[in-house]
Amino acid sequence: MMNWVVGLTGGIGSGKTAAADYLETLGVSVIDADKVARLVVAPGSFALAQIAAHFGENSVDKDGHLNRRYLRSVIFDHPQEKDWLEALLHPLIRSQILTDLQAPSSSPYVVLVSPLLLETDQWTLVDKVVVIDVPEALQLERSSSRDQATIESIQKIMEQQLSRTDRLSRADFVIDNRQTLTELHQQLADLHSTLQQLSLSKTIQKISRDACETD
Q1: Which of 75, 111, 142, 157 could form a disulfide with 13 if both were Cys (CB 3.0 to 4.6 A apart)?
Q2: Between 152 and 61, where is the model more confident?
Q3: Which positions in this protein are listed as binding ATP (predicted)?
Q4: Residue 209 above 70 pLDDT?
Q5: Domains located in the chain, CATH noted
Q6: Is 25 annotated as a binding residue?
Q7: 13 is in an annotated binding site
């Protein structure tokens, strides 16, 4: 049986990882789509072999891992190659995420944290959507400081993601992460209480519905 699932997303530099890490300290099970994405292209995987055959030997480093920097440079300049890569990886990632979401959990709800939750069909796997939100200027500032990346490269990533306006329009809950980590944690603690109540309500409704169907 599928767990009650909350999708957590946000643009680059918004603080998704910090939010997910804090929810884990509250006892919430977290499935990280980025970790799943790395798993499906692990050395020896079917996907990595397909990528190497399509993009050439430069797409794999000397240790047998995916050369992400090289691949990123290729797909940013060639949109059709991005389409090819997504057609290969997205179904594999979704399948593994679905398997993980169906695994038994003692958590009142399960969080799927994904930067592409709303850009792909991963949103169909969740019951509620939480968006970690910051202004685009702050995304650029935080990402360039954290990743030692150029503003231009970060802007290219942002262009591949849903716009801030569109992302917010699809949110059930919004966490404003413009301030301190303490304030982020307080908002998440309040949200956790709300989500616990919602998941309990949904569980009671399901039990009641199942009981009626067996009468």
Answers
A1: 142
A2: 61
A3: 13-18
A4: no
A5: 5-214 (3.40.50.300)
A6: no
A7: yes
